Amino acid sequence: MGRQPCCDKLGVKKGPWTAEEDKKLINFILTNGQCCWRAVPKLAGLRRCGKSCRLRWTNYLRPDLKRGLLTEDEEQLVIDLHARLGNRWSKIAARLQGRTDNEIKNHWNTHIKKKLLKMGIDPVTHEPLHDNHKPKPGDELSSSHANHHRMPESGDNNNSSSSPTENCSSSTTTTTTTNICTDETLLNSLWMDDDQHPLVDVISCNNNNNNLLPPAMENHGETVPSLPSLEDDCAFLFDCQDFGVHDYGLDYCFSDINEFSTGLNSLEMTNKH
DNA sequence: AAACCTGGCAACCGCTTCGTA
DNA sequence: GTACGAAGCGGTTGCCAGGTT
After folding, report:
1. CATH for the stretch A68-128
2. What does R_g of chain A's alpha carbons equal in angstroms?
3. Average pLDDT for consecutive 10-residue bins of chain A (273 residues)?
4. Of A205, A213, A219, which is closest to residue A250 (Cα–Cα)?
5. CB closer than 7 A to strand C: which residues?
6. Which CATH architecture has domain A9-63?
7. Domain extents for chain A?
8. Which residues form a coiled coil (predicted)?
């Protein structure tokens, strides 16, 4: 049965999102919540495919996203989870607060994979590499761009001359940090209304590693072992309370505002201890 | 200074899964 | 049980910034 295109290809814009488009999408989601993604572009006045809107929101605009490199702990957790789950990035992401599947997937391919190879561990099987996995010209670590993009799965390259800790992430930290600042500035402006009032205090939420959206808006409420405490999970509630959820259009997050208040009260009680 | 190379990330594509009529 | 549409997911690509020659 022929597959329907996800959207009308004609007149649908592709490529990088503009600040204007981001703003429209944010405003729409804040006002209406995440409903039928297919209808979002039309209703939000965007010439984008619904899929594209969903990706942009979940991977970039969501206020509960952490930014910047994964911490050592997060990286270790990703490795552990990958050993158990394989390339099921969404499942892995569900267990890391504020991280997206795309982000984890990219980080895996660009950092962790190489790190494991340098440590002599096959990133696919998580088993030690054999001797016949010696570096060859054109293999990943001698890498060309093309090789990087083809992502060889054979697990070549057991370069024991490098220490395990000597990895590529160090060289990128500075630029990434710079990008974060730029992104946060950009996002800060995006999360302002037309009168430059904050729609949501995104930056403080991120800096505190807190979440703004309730768990229900995140990863389908999967149970999350070995995760941040309830307090961490729900810290966004205090921010919402501080700024007033209604004021910022976040009341859509909660099916029952009384439930929200109750949750807040109980959290406050917990917090006082 | 310019050309080329490399690495990283945002975004797209297409397949799979889920929900519903 | 089946067909279909919508959303989710993972793989892949393209662009761009920074580094190197």
Report:
1. 1.10.10.60
2. 21
3. 43 81 85 80 84 85 79 85 84 84 85 83 79 43 37 35 35 38 58 61 42 38 38 38 36 38 39 39
4. A213
5. A 1, 4, 6, 15-16, 35-39, 50-51, 54-55, 87-91, 101-102, 105-106, 109, 145, 149-151, 171, 174-175, 178, 220
6. Orthogonal Bundle (1.10)
7. 9-63, 68-128
8. none
